[in-house]
Amino acid sequence: MHKIQDWLARPPKYTTFRINSLRKFEYDKLTNYLIEQSKELNTTSIPKFYLLRPDCLVVEQWTDDVKIENGNKIVVVDALCAAAVLRGAHVFAPGVMGLPSGKIIFKFLLKVNYDGKKKYVGTGYLKMTRNELFDNGIQASGIAVHTLLPASRLPVINETLYPKGTILLQNLPSIVCGWVVDAKPHEVILDMCAAPGNKTTHLAEMSHDQANIIALDKTPQKIASLQKNCYSHGLTCIKAFVFDSTKCCSYESDGVHQGPPYPPNSFDKVLLDAPCSGLGQRPQLINKMTPKMLQSYKFVQRKLFRSAVEVLKFGGRLTYSTCTVTEDENERIVSWALETFPCLSLVPAEPLLGGPGLPNCGLSDQQREMVQRFSPTDDSLRFVDPIYKDTIGFFIAQFTKLK
Ligand code: SAM
Hints:
The chain is of the alpha/beta class.
């Protein structure tokens, strides 16, 4: 248990971006940007970066010799903001909890509890005055502190370095999830819990904008932002609808070319990237989830799963994923699904880049090997490249539907 808690408390050592494969990715732009940063950090080397696959960019940390002098002033930020800084983000105004008066602040810290315990998360330049942040009577927005060097030594890379929709900060297992779905031109694909569309846009891009993708989400604002994302990525093959996916199957439907609901056996591929407890997020500096909340997710996951099975074509592929590490929302959903739907068969969620499923959670050794779990598990069942061991916690399983 301690092993996983320690792992969750630390940020991953790599930053990953998804590259829009329909656009040209200019390597030199990133090199030049990092060279500029290296001058500010007084170093001659820049972090290593490379394409793991044509649609996945990996950026490593600054080397150990990069040192930065801490000032004597501090900005206190909340835990969520601190986690973002550790992953290489700037501090946005709503995350600031407090700061002393003065113009330039060199160091900012996390207030872990209200008892004064703090953790250093990075160093940067203050961009807003105390007055702008707190004294205007309205919630301030924008960058409050420009991060120079997070304590994690991850580089700060802004997506705006490239035209909108060219690169997207995305966790490695989420990118792997797209590879597992493996969208092809002309396939009819349902993304049941799609917003903000990070996986939907990946699927569209890998199909060269030629799949027929339906994206559903129950929250109207989230569908609006998904639509904006599709536009900035230059994608036209995605139709998005506000809809409760637990009800996305109906015998009275007119077919997949209309809005939801859809007739049974309609989709070649279904992605159920389920709402979950999100316990795989790293670093996890604070968690306010109650045991009751934690228990609640499996019920909605099962409801969504039922609909997913109904709308999937015979011979089609259903991909189930979560960004959490609990067995209830992962391995036990898989074993429940295999018991509940005799038409379903588990297939290897290839490419198998994470570790196997947990033992003693309802899956046989053979079944554990077909799923992928990104967490510090015993991965003696298969070789896992180190980069896939230092990601957020995540789970992926894939099924096919038999007659
Ligand atoms: N797939 C998304 C991506 O990669 O960008 C992330 C999806 S997030 C894990 C889960 C989403 O499920 C949330 O946006 C939430 O609004 C949506 N959701 C929850 N319950 C739903 C339901 N019954 N029907 C449709 N969407 C639902």
